[in-house]
Structure formats: C-alpha cells, structure tokens
Amino acid sequence: QVQLVESGGGLVQPGGSLRLSCATSGFTLDYFAVGWFRQAPGKEREGVLCISSSGGTTYYANSVKGRFTISRDNAKNTVYLQMNSLKPEDTGVYYCETPGLAYCSDYSEWGSLTDFNSWGQGTQVTVSS
Question: CA–CA separation, 19 vs 3, rounded Å?
Fold first, then answer.
C-alpha cells in the first residue's frame, strides 16, 4: 500500500531551522508529486507547498515563500522540507501526501484526490522561545 511517513520535527527557537523528511513506500516516487501540509492547534489543515515529479515547486501558503524549500531524492524514496527563518505561526503538525499525479494539483482539489482519514500521524513542529 501507499505509505508516507513524516519525521524530523521538534522544538526550535524563532529564526531557527528544521529539516523534515517524508519517507515513501508502496509506489514509484519518481512518477509522482508530493505535497506538505500542516495543522496548527485548534485550526484547519492548510497546504504549505508541493513538488512535482520533475522537481517544480508549487506554493500553497504565501507566508512560507522564501523561507521553505521542498526537494526530493527518488533514490532514497524520500521528500524533504527545509524550513528556515521559522516563526511561531509555523507551529503545527506537518503531513506529507501524494495526489497520485505527476504534477501538483490545485490545493482545492486535494480533498477529492486523497482520503484525509488515511493520512499518517505527521510530525510536530514547535517554534517558541
């Protein structure tokens, strides 16, 4: 089965950096796009950014542009999220998922492309002094 497992979260001070990993299995990663999402306490889940099979980036959240970078290593079946200049508002549980497509879908289409109930546990990112 298709599985994506997040790791790398932790506690960091404002202005600090973290690198999250998304380990994938059950599908050929090089054919598919992967997106990162997050959910802050008491708030709705939101899209962060996405990488296509060819390596292009789509930003869902304008607030992370210039601070977050997504990359992929198909040989390791892993997608990464490098987060720099972190802010308290970046705090939340971060998830990765694939739309089952080679390209990054519009954020509004993710609900019809994936089953949110089947997503993993995510990894906690806390930005605080």
Answer: 20
Q: Which residue has the tokens 């962060």?
A: 48
SS3 10: strand
Which residues, listed in sequence order, are joined to residue 95 by a DSSP beta bridge? Answer: 37
Arithmetic mean of pLDDT over the chain: 95
Q: Is there a contact between 119 and 98 (Cβ–Cβ < 8 Å)?
A: no
d(CA 129, CA 126): 10
pLDDT on residue 99: 93
Which residues lie across from 123 on neighbouring strands? 94
- Strands 18-25 and 92-97, by their bridges, are unpaired
Rounded to an integer, what is the distance from CA 24 to the centroid of its chain?
12
The structure tokens listed for 75 are: 């040989």
Q: How far apart are CA 107 and CA 102, in angstroms?
A: 15
Which segments of 65-112 are extended strands (E)? 68-73, 78-83, 92-97
